[in-house]
Design brief:
The complex is a heterodimer of chains A (278) and B (461). Chain A is an all-alpha fold. Chain A contains eleven helices and no strands. Chain A has a domain at 83-274: Orthogonal Bundle (MetI-like fold), CATH 1.10.3720.10. Chain B is built from 20 helices and 16 strands. Chain B has helices at residues 27-33, 45-61, 65-75, 77-87, 90-97, 119-123, 129-132, 145-153, 165-172, 222-233, 249-258, 270-276, 302-307, 309-327, 332-339, 349-357, 382-394, 404-411, 416-423, 448-453; strands spanning 107-112, 136-141, 159-163, 181-186, 189-190, 192-197, 213-216, 243-246, 263-267, 280-285, 296-301, 359-361, 367-369, 374-375, 436-438, 441-443. Classes of the chains: A mainly alpha (278), B alpha/beta (461). The A-B interface holds A 37, 40-41, 43-46, 49, 51-54, 76-80, 142-143, 146-148, 226-230, 238-245 and B 114, 125, 138-143, 147, 150-151, 153-154, 156, 250, 253-254, 273, 275-278, 341-344, 346-348, 350-351, 354, 359-361, 365-367.
């Protein structure tokens, strides 16, 4: 067991982690404070009290993680909810935006993939809209949609539709000629051909597109929520930033990373079902 | 100058910040130094409510404060009260202001920005003022002033915390589509400061600020106008000699730390927070620029007021009562404790306490004691609206001619009772405008254009 790649890589990962934590600890060692400020002034300046700003030490960070995870579902008012509730809101928005994007991207991708004419016609639009950042879409969305939660979902939709669209188009266009010819020989009707030949053939590429889109959707939701506020992990980051509480901001970042990884793994699992060996 | 002073007392100067005997800088000092104060300070909510209505009426009837005082001295205050009451239904007005009609809408969403300016509307939640009026209010912390504006335009929020010039700007369609917004009360007066980075400890003369970068929270804000006014008075042109950027307040402290900006004129608690985090020091409190300047307002759209008059009256009463409680220095520590948690301001309690009590560390090693560093006076003065309009015109935010009085009057509701009076068939008296001083220069609301023309530095039209 000790010589397998899995074990060796795990050991190396652990080593990297230890080096990271060690460097962090050394970088945040407390410096000697200049004494001599008078007592009352010092008290007003918060000396002696536990200041929550500034870069935390690894131990403080660990404490913050424990504190936040201890009661993940608390609700102390409309602006102060536990991390579990905030994550729930974010995931709901991502889910909705992503499903909407899927509903548009996959059928449209099919059409584009099967028809070079439509592909050429839509290409300029796709290329121009693709690189636009979600934060740039936000004001337009707010102005026209006039509802901040719908605007957030729209922004997720408009940013995560492109990878799925392009990958679906590519996957469909790259289906092997032989299979299409066999289908033609067998006089398969177009709809059956789409579902039974093209879809399974293009599925791995489509799912790769979905995986990328999910990553983008998760990225976008944090930015959108910081702007729009209310609930969600992005709002949590922004609220803690208001308090210049870097520790909680870093905790939120860690959570964002872990959840992003989980979402990616989930789609990766799905991918396994549709891969085939030619 | 307060809505809560007794207007039937000939010694009270309604227009000025001075005290009743005239020897002290403000009423608080007067009360502190005189063993027996002339007026028993009343904190009874109903009395204060009456005072606001009476005060408004008296100011409306006697725009010149000196006339009012002479009138009362001549006939005596009880005769004055009776005389006025026979002509105008003060009792009915007070009753109307207290009128608890059935609420059209009980569940409300009120937007706010997490700064101490919004203290009255924030503290009304944990201290139960909204509940007492039968309202179920959800306070929505909002990410920035642009979103406050958007959420009000979208009707996602029923009422909101505004920067005082914003309802004016939105009603006029500046920087957004035009929608009639009204100010119900001014939330706070003073409460801002110019904070500079620690490296500028020796550059306290504004003439040395050429090339500095400053941050303000929003274009249409008292901060922008006061900063421009201050540097212009010291000979710098704010459009060419310094850079003014719009930055959200929490980022002001972060930017100061990173050296992106040299200073900011921003709302508390971020000035105190900059001192607490040892990145800056407080150069000048905004109260030293214009004592009693309005900062933030509590307002809503005209449509909301028309459709939900009773709900609006209930909200108004709740915020008014909260402001009355916030005025009393005794309550400030309690209020600091109650609004500090993450659900509201999300700041360390000591920072907020220093802002509200006025006993604070200034970042240069001194402890200062300025009790009305931040104060809460809910009465929107139309004259302030007119001043803001002149400044907007001065710096080119409004082009062309402006009918100052008409706009200001419309947007700043002097008192909800005035509208009610009109409905009852009584002719509402013309609004009264007090003259006031900004940085030693007097502003007469009757002649706004003359004031505008008197400035050497302004944006050429």
């Amino acid at each position: 067991m000790f010589s397998t790649t899995w074990f060796k890589s795990a050991l190396l990962s652990l080593l990297f982690l230890v080096i990271l934590l060690g460097t962090w600890h050394l970088a945040t060692l407390p410096k000697a404070e200049a004494q001599g400020a008078n007592d009352e002034y010092a008290k007003l300046m918060g000396k002696g009290a536990k200041k929550s700003d500034g870069f935390p030490t690894p131990v403080q960070f660990g404490e913050a993680i424990a504190r936040n995870l201890a009661e993940p579902f608390y609700d102390r008012g409309s602006n102060d909810k536990g991390i579990g509730i905030q994550l729930g809101h974010s995931l709901a928005r991502v889910g909705l935006g992503f499903v909407l994007a899927m509903l548009l991207a996959i059928p449209l991708g099919f059409v584009i993939g099967m028809s070079p004419l439509i592909y050429r016609a839509l290409d300029p639009f796709i290329q121009i809209l693709k690189p636009i950042s979600p934060l740039a879409w936000m004001p337009i969305a707010l102005y026209t949609i006039k509802d901040s939660s719908l605007s957030g979902i729209f922004v997720i939709f408009i940013c995560s539709v492109w990878p799925m669209l392009i990958n679906t188009a590519y996957g469909v266009a790259a289906v092997r000629r032989e299979w299409l010819n066999v289908a033609k020989t067998l006089e398969v009707r177009p709809l059956r051909k789409a579902f039974l030949v093209i879809l399974p053939a293009a599925a791995p590429t489509i799912l790769t597109g979905m995986r990328i889109s999910m990553g983008i959707a998760w990225l976008v939701i944090v930015a959108a929520e910081m702007l729009v506020g209310g609930t969600g992990i992005g709002y949590f980051v922004w609220n803690e930033w208001n308090n210049l509480n870097l520790t909680n901001v870093m905790f939120a970042i860690l959570v964002i990373g872990v959840v992003g990884m989980a979402l990616d793994l989930a789609i990766g699992r799905l991918q396994k079902f549709v891969t085939y060996v030619e | 100058m307060s809505a809560f002073d007794n207007p039937f007392n000939s010694k009270v100067r309604l227009g000025a910040a001075a005290c009743t005997c005239g020897k002290h800088a403000n009423q608080a000092e007067h009360d502190a130094t005189s063993a027996v104060s002339d007026e028993p300070v009343s904190n009874d909510i109903d009395t204060l409510n009456h005072r606001v209505i009476e005060s408004a009426l008296m100011r409306a009837l006697f725009p010149q404060d000196a006339t009012r005082r002479r009138f009362i001295e001549a006939v005596g205050s009880s005769t004055a009260m009776a005389a006025i009451a026979s002509v105008l239904p003060i009792g009915a007005l007070s009753a109307m202001a207290q009128d608890k009609g059935p609420l059209e809408k009980k569940d409300l969403k009120i937007g706010f920005i997490a700064i101490t300016c919004a203290t009255p509307l924030i503290m009304a939640d944990p201290l139960g003022f909204y509940k007492k009026e039968g309202l179920n209010v959800q306070l929505m912390k909002t990410a920035g002033w642009a979103l406050i504006r958007d959420k009000m335009l979208n009707k996602e929020h029923d009422a909101s915390h505004f920067l005082s010039p914003m309802p004016l700007a939105i009603s006029m369609g500046l920087g957004s589509s035009a929608q009639a917004m009204d100010v119900a009360t001014i939330q706070n007066i003073n409460g801002q400061a110019i904070t500079l980075a620690n490296k500028h400890k020796d550059k306290r003369d504004p003439k040395q600020w050429k090339g500095f970068k400053f941050a303000v929270p929003f274009e249409y804000s008292m901060h922008n106008f006061l900063l421009r006014y201050y540097v212009a008075e010291h000979g710098l042109d704010p459009d060419t000699d310094i850079q003014i950027r719009v930055t959200p307040p929490p980022e002001m402290v972060a930017n100061l730390r990173a050296g992106n900006i040299d200073g900011f004129l921003g709302p508390d608690p971020f000035n105190q927070r900059a001192v607490y985090d040892e990145v800056g020091f407080i150069h000048l409190l905004s109260k030293e620029l214009w004592d009693g300047h309005p900062c933030c307002a509590f307002g809503t759209s005209e449509a909301f007021i028309k459709e939900n008059p009773n709900t609006f009256a209930a909200m108004y009463r709740a915020v008014l009562n909260a402001a009355a409680m916030a005025r009393d220095p005794k309550n400030r520590s309690l209020i600091a404790k109650v609004i500090a948690p993450p659900n509201y301001l999300n700041q360390p309690e000591t920072v907020i306490e220093q802002v509200l009590t006025g006993k604070f560390a200034d970042g240069l090693g001194n402890i200062k004691n300025v009790p009305d560093r931040a104060d809460f006076d809910p009465f929107p003065w139309q004259s302030m609206a007119v001043w803001m309009l002149t400044q907007m015109k001065r710096w080119g935010y409004i082009k062309g001619d402006v009918n100052y009085k008409a706009i200001a009057e419309k947007v700043f509701l002097a008192t909800d009772a005035r509208k009610r009076m009109a409905e009852l068939g009584h002719k509402a008296p013309a609004g009264s405008y007090a003259k006031f001083k900004v940085m030693g220069k007097e502003f007469d609301p009757a002649t706004p254009d003359k004031y505008l023309a008197s400035f050497a530095i302004k944006k050429s039209a």
